[in-house]
Amino acid sequence: MRRVRRTYRDLDRPGRWLHQELLAEGRYDETRGGRRHAYTGRHRLDGDRIDYLDDSGFYAIGSFLGEELYHAEFVMRHGGGGRGTPPAR
């Protein structure tokens, strides 16, 4: 598995975006609203499903549909800005 970066932005609500990196060693690192390392933890892929276990003990799931990742209220796509910076419009 390679490093995957996914970015979400909500054009109707400026400043609402996240950047998530899925690392090859089974870790993830998420930036939300400019707050780096807002969520970090482990992830496990099983087909089109991804399970997250946050370092704080929070558990979440997501699903891949094509090139999109559906996680919580977010729909994430490959691409976006660099780490810690919002994607360009």
UniProtKB/TrEMBL annotation:
One Pfam family named in its UniProt record: Atu4866
UniProt xrefs under InterPro entries: Atu4866-like_sf, Uncharacterised_Atu4866
Domain of life, source organism: Bacteria
Protein name per its UniProtKB record: Uncharacterized protein
